[in-house]
């Protein structure tokens, strides 16, 4: 698989590049950047890493390892890519690590909209290819990119799987099990209006129930933790590990021949759950370079209400930037 990462020298982009090289040393990665020195630094270091990951030196006739290269974003049309991941952003201000800081998300949206429009211009030179957006606020940014590109909606999706892992972790600690024994998929907005589907949660395969207070405490914890990580590690170091691993899972799904199990990703909605003209995280299956199916799960009353709040929050911003 040849993956182009726009913003390839970013915290998330470089972590994903390393994850791809570890996962299959035959994967190729091109880091598209404006910070070309940093991209050179990562591409060179990753190429050195690939020597060991593939078990060099190789005997003659062994399958060659993938390449790790870099290029300016405007040159993306010259590359034959199987998937694109967008992690580029305008540098944040210190306030943006504070979940509660008033206006931080709006500032982030206003800063990243022109950037995503310029990325859409560069992608015009590419035939539709599965594209996973990470840049925040992801539900708005992925909607804007999809709109600007005019590509089929099956090709463009926003990454929000970090929250599914964080919810599993929060539930696991309460039940004293490993997080991988927990299933509680997470829909809605990537942010304040996240919607863990508590009504279908299981722990070690058994249904579990939560009081409204327990639900609220888990949501609060899940919303705080990325900001706590960024604050403790420094603003330049976002949640690279969960994001790198989750993105790898999405890319593996996109390159598989058979549909994956449902994963919650932020996709353009066309009537699902009664919503249109926005992106929200909903369950989808992936295969063969695209979203195969968008699924409508039964939600309980409070989850349905939270999902509507998520939709309204995203729509309000979409309306603002569409005007
Ligand atoms: N959706 C999620 O779950 C999730 C999780 C973590 C982080 N994020 C978001 O991902 C984004 C990336 O975070 P990070 O910490 O990795 O970023 P970062 O600040 O480390 O790097 C951003 C990079 O974008 C590059 N860039 C800017 N304009 C560009 C352009 N036109 N073309 C190519 N590259 C360009 C910069 O040079 C820089 O290397 C942020 O918006 C962050 O909030 C989302
Ligand atoms: O950068 C953020 O706002 C948090 C990030 O989206 C994350 O989920 O780690």
Automatic annotation (TrEMBL):
SUPFAM superfamilies: LDH C-terminal domain-like (SSF56327), NAD(P)-binding Rossmann-fold domains (SSF51735). Residues 164-318 form the Lactate/malate dehydrogenase C-terminal domain. The active site is at 190 (proton acceptor). The lineage of its organism: Archaea, Methanobacteriati, Methanobacteriota, Stenosarchaea group, Halobacteria. One of its GO terms (biological process) is tricarboxylic acid cycle. Pfam families: Ldh_1_C, Ldh_1_N. This is malate dehydrogenase. Its EC number is 1.1.1.37. NAD(+) binds at residues 7-13, 112, 134-136. It catalyses: (S)-malate + NAD(+) = oxaloacetate + NADH + H(+).
């Amino acid at each position: 698989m040849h993956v182009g990462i726009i913003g390839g020298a970013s915290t998330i982009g470089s972590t994903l590049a390393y994850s791809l090289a570890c996962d299959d040393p035959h994967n190729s990665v091109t880091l598209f950047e404006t910070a070309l020195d940093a991209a050179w630094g990562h591409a060179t270091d990753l190429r050195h890493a690939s020597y060991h990951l593939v078990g060099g030196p190789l005997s003659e006739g062994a399958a060659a390892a993938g390449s790790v290269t870099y290029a300016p974003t405007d040159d993306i049309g010259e590359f034959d890519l199987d998937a694109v991941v967008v992690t580029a952003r305008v540098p944040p201000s210190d306030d943006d690590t504070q979940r509660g800081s008033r206006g931080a998300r709006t500032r982030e949206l206003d800063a990243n909209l022109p950037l995503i429009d310029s990325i859409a211009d560069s992608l015009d030179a590419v035939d539709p290819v599965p594209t996973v957006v990470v840049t925040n606020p992801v539900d708005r940014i992925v909607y804007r990119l999809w709109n600007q590109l005019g590509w089929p909606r099956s090709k463009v999706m926003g990454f929000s799987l970090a929250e599914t892992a964080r919810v599993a972790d929060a539930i696991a600690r309460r039940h004293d099990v490993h997080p991988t024994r927990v299933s509680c998929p997470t829909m809605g907005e990537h942010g304040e209006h996240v919607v863990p589907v508590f009504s279908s949660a299981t722990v070690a395969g058994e249904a579990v129930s939560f009081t409204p207070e327990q639900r609220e405490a888990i949501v609060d914890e899940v919303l705080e933790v990325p900001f706590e990580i960024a604050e403790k590690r420094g603003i330049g170091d976002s949640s690279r590990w969960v994001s790198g691993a989750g993105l790898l899972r999405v890319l593996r799904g996109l390159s598989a021949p058979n549909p994956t199990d449902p994963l919650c990703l932020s996709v353009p909605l066309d009537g699902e759950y009664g919503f249109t003209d926005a992106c929200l995280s909903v369950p989808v299956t992936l295969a063969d370079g695209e979203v195969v199916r968008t699924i409508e799960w039964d939600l309980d009353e409070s989850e349905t209400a939270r999902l509507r709040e998520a939709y309204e929050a995203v729509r309000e911003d979409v309306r603002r930037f569409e005007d």
